[in-house]
Q: What sequence folds into this?
């Protein structure tokens, strides 16, 4: 049977992932299915680590405020991009081509498709690091085992992302309840609301904390179309996004913050809200369950990131998603073994500066101004690149000279406003005589 055989979902193991064209309406998936894809993405141990870092730095109530603000921004940002995807069935690279041009789009698509492979490497490395710190296991072997498992999930495709999302989210909820129960038995939750932060934690400002929340999903959130293009409509795509932002992401971040505030985290200054040690110190049965939890939980976010990268590079190279899954997965595992995952703080700063203005430009062009609907196909468009540069420059300046503000949020606002102003001054644009079908085909390298 061909990998691209077009049969019903019940009778095909590996169906087409529609790397090079919009998902046909008859292959769209239910709201429950796409919600499961997004729900299991942020409800992971990684988010708990970040949430613990925020609460450790700002204290409970101020940290909670930063988490809520960041998630509201993500809801508006990712939700709008999801609406575009559900309405058109296009993945991120195809949507970017409508704004940046069919060749110009290769730059933002290539950047994000590479960045998410870095996130995959981070999750694989975190798998090894987490099991080493909790159980003393060899991190290299855990990286190899976890990497192979995560690549397999991605190889199966969006169906596997749905399945692991259905498993990962309730598994996370159960394990956090257990961890919090241990905290309660130890008498550590009485002063959670009064927690004022840890020693040295004030180095993280409120704005920087908001940026962490946004940047942690800036890349895959901008590439949300790779998931929500499977939705039956724009409305259902937005509803699916709601399960992640603010619902799942807020819960995951606050769980980590709660663990830190309750005094249950080991070295929260370095490990944030990692609550795995609270589970592995309570008998062999719970330890075994906790190990499975690590692979399922981090596997969920790792597979999502690798899927983004494989779909994006399919567009750039004209290749097939599953072939690229294996190749990019091997690169990510090698990067994890090399220790690149340990630089996550610098990674978040880069994401917060470069990525959010891209989505802002797309939203202004295709949702607010709606000029992409009537624009003839073009190879390059200069205007979105200028606006992207202005937005990133503003975020860069905030990062270094006004850290009390959120660089990611400033990048979104400035990038969007810049494009709106540039677009209003360029009423006449050069046109080329290609229709939408030829634009899509040429951008995809002619692959089908």
A:
């Amino acid at each position: 049977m061909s990998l691209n055989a077009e049969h019903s979902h019940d009778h095909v193991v590996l169906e087409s992932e529609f790397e090079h064209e919009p998902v046909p309406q008859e292959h769209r998936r239910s709201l429950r299915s796409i919600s499961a894809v997004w729900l299991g993405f942020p409800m992971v141990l990684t988010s708990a680590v970040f949430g613990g870092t925020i609460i450790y730095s700002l204290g409970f109530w101020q940290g909670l405020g930063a988490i809520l603000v960041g998630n509201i921004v993500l809801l508006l940002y990712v939700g709008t991009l999801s609406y575009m995807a559900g309405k058109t069935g296009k993945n991120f690279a195809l949507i970017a081509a409508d704004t940046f041009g069919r060749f110009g789009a290769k730059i933002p698509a290539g950047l994000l498709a590479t960045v998410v492979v870095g996130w995959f490497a981070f999750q694989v490395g975190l798998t090894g690091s987490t099991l080493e710190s909790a159980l003393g296991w060899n991190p290299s072997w855990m990286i190899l085992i976890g990497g192979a498992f995560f690549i397999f999930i991605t190889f199966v495709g969006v169906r596997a992302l749905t399945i692991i999302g259905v498993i990962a989210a309730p598994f996370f909820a159960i394990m956090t309840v257990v961890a919090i129960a241990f905290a309660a038995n130890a008498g550590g939750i009485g002063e959670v609301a009064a927690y004022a932060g840890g020693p040295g934690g004030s180095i993280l400002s409120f704005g920087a904390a908001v940026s962490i929340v946004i940047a942690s999903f800036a890349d895959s959130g901008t590439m949300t179309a790779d998931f929500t293009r499977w939705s039956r409509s724009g409305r259902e795509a937005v509803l699916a996004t709601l399960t992640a932002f603010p619902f799942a992401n807020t819960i995951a971040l606050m769980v980590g913050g709660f663990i830190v505030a309750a005094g249950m985290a080991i070295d929260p200054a370095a490990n944030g809200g990692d609550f795995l040690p609270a589970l592995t110190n309570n008998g062999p049965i719970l330890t075994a369950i906790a190990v499975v939890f690590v692979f399922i939980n981090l596997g969920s976010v790792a597979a999502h990131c690798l899927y983004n990268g494989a779909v994006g590079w399919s567009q750039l190279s004209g290749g097939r998603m599953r072939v690229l899954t294996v190749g990019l997965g091997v690169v990510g595992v090698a990067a994890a073994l090399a220790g690149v995952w340990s630089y996550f703080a610098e990674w978040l700063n880069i994401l917060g500066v470069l990525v959010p203005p891209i989505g802002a430009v797309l939203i202004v062009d295709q949702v607010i101004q709606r000029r992409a609907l009537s624009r003839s196909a073009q190879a390059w468009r200069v205007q979105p690149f200028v606006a992207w540069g202005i937005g990133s420059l503003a975020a860069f300046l905030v990062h270094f000279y006004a850290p009390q503000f959120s660089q990611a949020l400033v990048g979104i606002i400035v990038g969007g406003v810049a494009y709106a102003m540039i677009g209003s001054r360029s009423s006449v644009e050069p046109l080329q005589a290609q229709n939408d079908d030829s634009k899509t085909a040429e951008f995809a390298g002619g692959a089908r």
Observations:
- Residues 1-12, 427-448 have pLDDT under 50 and may be disordered.
- The longest helix spans residues 284-317.
- The radius of gyration is 21 Å.
- DSSP finds 20 helices and no strands in the chain.
